Amino acid sequence: MLGKENRRSYQEFNDDENEDTQSPGFFDNPTAELDRDEPKSRVSQEDDTRENSPPVRFSKACLKNFFTVVLIFIYLLLTGVAVFLAYQTISDFLERFHHPVMSVTYKEVDSFSPPGIALFPGKAQLLSCRHHYHDNIPPLVDPGKHQEGDCVINDVTYIGPFTNQTEKRALVVRGPSDVRNKELIFMQFSLNETEEDFSAISYMLFANFSDLIESANKSGFMRDCESNYSMWTFSGGFRTWVKMSLVRTSGKNNEAVEFRQESAVVKFNDKRPASEKNNELFFAVFEWRDPFMQDIRLIVTANPWNSVAILCGVFMALFKAANFAKLTIQWIIRMRKRHLRNKARELNQIT
Q: Percentage of the chain with pLDDT > 70?
């Protein structure tokens, strides 16, 4: 009896298990369970992707903002360089405009305009004045005595500009002009006695002897010359050889003429009788040094067109930098709005 009951109970348990495992339609659709499980896995993957995507977006946005800041800094640096370049260009232009440079040129001529040689002999007397050529001065004949001359001389009396109503007398001699043939003027003066400690004759050079001839007021002309030109001297008992050179200076508003000179002094060997040596003798020679006239011009090296071109380039760079900064700021604002919109959408999906 017991054996039958146990066999029956085992059979019932086995049948129940078979009913659960081998129910009708168990093997009809084996992929149904997988299809039901697949949406769950897809949802879980999307959840994982959504959980992992915000850090990636955040890192990309940070990199974009970082590079944007770097670009803005670079453009600001370039803008500062452009502003400094504009300031330096304007300063350099003003500096060159107010301080022109000096340009020196030499012009070769065949002859000069005869200069004026104004001599102030005082108590001395002009004994002779003659033209010679090729540096050839003949030996002296009867030094200390009046001799025939061939110079053009004007005697001018005027009131000196630096003295209180003191009358001055000037002998103005027409200077040499033929520089190719080395024309020179040889003059001889004699001074009987003097109350001065040192005996010398002063002289002055001006550009054109014809200016004095054409002047209506010769006294005023000589007074102006003494105010504007330098004075030199040559001493008694010597032969002073003066070699002249002409310098023409052209300024911004006017033109000036200046004489430069080189002088050589040679002692006079006085062979006169002792009774005639009381008269001190002065000898002077005037000639041109060379056939070159020095021309000095003040040149403004500042080029306005070059400065304008540089400034145009600088202002174009500033305009481009301002335009880039404007577009960059607009792009930053647009990215900020998009980031806030995406963040709000994610918060709505979560809620």
A: 80
